[in-house]
């Protein structure tokens, strides 16, 4: 369906829904690289005017990626909950935005609405919002998940402890793990990016994590961020797998480039659930996403990168994950050029993921050739905490020595707890107190204590 609008004496023509969505999207380098960005701010405003007046029901009749050739589109369309959609089915995108910002859109109503929303609806409404709107609505949404502790509760902020090592040396990993735990991080997950996909070495890391967890009776979950098929193999070999990790994207072709399909994800989900290793919950999946992933592999179907990102969330919510995070600045300045674009993308991803019912976190990060710095990351981490993000990722010193990018540090998590009064998961907080690592909400900085030995068999 062609859409036309006249603005300041000029007529703008948008050929279809994906043209409107791309033109309405805030400026970012990835859409410019793809040749689909609005040509100037006036065209962007015209597209947003068209989008604001578009009925939400239109998104149920026009697929931006063909239904016949894309299993993600089929998943989105076939799983749509018409009953949940009914309360807003009469609205346009603009009216939906106004309702989201109203008192009527409270935590309970947003939770009930989630199954009735498609990713395209959610991406569309985010394009009409200012940053403060994304924070205001994001703060109202709560998604609680659990495995050995509970993530997403009010006034709580989880943290992923990421003890990466350039050679996967178990003692080096253990030292980084100890560093994070002494600073009160790690309740969301002890999650490591292995330097190789070697099955035996990966199993050694998992056994080391599990040995440490059991010796110190830690209410945490671990995860090896390897390919999902490797994790399936490790489960078959008897490895102590808590969470299954996989990077996902918003089209069948993009996921195929990752070496996955919905069938493979379902197989891994079932295998992990059958292990029954959780103590307070059964959420066993951990997904990572990032704006630009489909564009980088040429599998975006001419759709803007933010909308493609939100389509990945439709894949994630099928599996009721414990954690989902966007690695917001990791893919590089070709997709998010500077600090302004990274901040905006982080707020969009959190808002859209939460609105679709996902326990959203974020890796507040950037590569060293991007036009940004740690001050921009400070801004984003504080905005996300104000927006009620479930968890953030931290690495020693904010510098990942294995992946060579900049993230948050364990000290940043402490700053956010102090400034915003947020606390770790209740089970993990009780463990920190039991281990005499904290006194109330503060680290016990002035009292000596014996360092635990994390070497295997010690």
UniProtKB/TrEMBL annotation:
<dbReference type="GO" id="GO:0005829">
    <property type="term" value="C:cytosol"/>
</dbReference>
<comment type="similarity">
    <text>Belongs to the EutB family.</text>
</comment>
<keyword id="KW-0846">Cobalamin</keyword>
<feature type="binding site">
    <location>
        <position position="363"/>
    </location>
    <ligand>
        <name>substrate</name>
    </ligand>
</feature>
<dbReference type="InterPro" id="IPR010628">
    <property type="entry name" value="EutB"/>
</dbReference>
<dbReference type="Pfam" id="PF06751">
    <property type="entry name" value="EutB"/>
</dbReference>
<keyword id="KW-1283">Bacterial microcompartment</keyword>
<feature type="binding site">
    <location>
        <position position="246"/>
    </location>
    <ligand>
        <name>adenosylcob(III)alamin</name>
    </ligand>
</feature>
<feature type="binding site">
    <location>
        <position position="402"/>
    </location>
    <ligand>
        <name>adenosylcob(III)alamin</name>
    </ligand>
</feature>
<keyword id="KW-0456">Lyase</keyword>
<dbReference type="GO" id="GO:0046336">
    <property type="term" value="P:ethanolamine catabolic process"/>
</dbReference>
<dbReference type="GO" id="GO:0006520">
    <property type="term" value="P:amino acid metabolic process"/>
</dbReference>
<dbReference type="GO" id="GO:0031471">
    <property type="term" value="C:ethanolamine degradation polyhedral organelle"/>
</dbReference>
<dbReference type="InterPro" id="IPR013785">
    <property type="entry name" value="Aldolase_TIM"/>
</dbReference>
<comment type="subunit">
    <text>The basic unit is a heterodimer which dimerizes to form tetramers. The heterotetramers trimerize; 6 large subunits form a core ring with 6 small subunits projecting outwards.</text>
</comment>
<feature type="binding site">
    <location>
        <position position="296"/>
    </location>
    <ligand>
        <name>adenosylcob(III)alamin</name>
    </ligand>
</feature>
<dbReference type="GO" id="GO:0009350">
    <property type="term" value="C:ethanolamine ammonia-lyase complex"/>
</dbReference>
<protein>
    <recommendedName>
        <fullName>Ethanolamine ammonia-lyase large subunit</fullName>
        <ecNumber>4.3.1.7</ecNumber>
    </recommendedName>
</protein>
<dbReference type="InterPro" id="IPR044939">
    <property type="entry name" value="EutB_dom_2_sf"/>
</dbReference>
<feature type="binding site">
    <location>
        <begin position="160"/>
        <end position="162"/>
    </location>
    <ligand>
        <name>substrate</name>
    </ligand>
</feature>
<comment type="pathway">
    <text>Amine and polyamine degradation; ethanolamine degradation.</text>
</comment>
<feature type="binding site">
    <location>
        <position position="193"/>
    </location>
    <ligand>
        <name>substrate</name>
    </ligand>
</feature>
<dbReference type="InterPro" id="IPR044941">
    <property type="entry name" value="EutB_N_sf"/>
</dbReference>
<comment type="function">
    <text>Catalyzes the deamination of various vicinal amino-alcohols to oxo compounds. Allows this organism to utilize ethanolamine as the sole source of nitrogen and carbon in the presence of vitamin B12.</text>
</comment>
<dbReference type="GO" id="GO:0031419">
    <property type="term" value="F:cobalamin binding"/>
</dbReference>
<feature type="binding site">
    <location>
        <position position="288"/>
    </location>
    <ligand>
        <name>substrate</name>
    </ligand>
</feature>
<dbReference type="GO" id="GO:0008851">
    <property type="term" value="F:ethanolamine ammonia-lyase activity"/>
</dbReference>
<feature type="binding site">
    <location>
        <position position="194"/>
    </location>
    <ligand>
        <name>adenosylcob(III)alamin</name>
    </ligand>
</feature>
<keyword id="KW-0170">Cobalt</keyword>
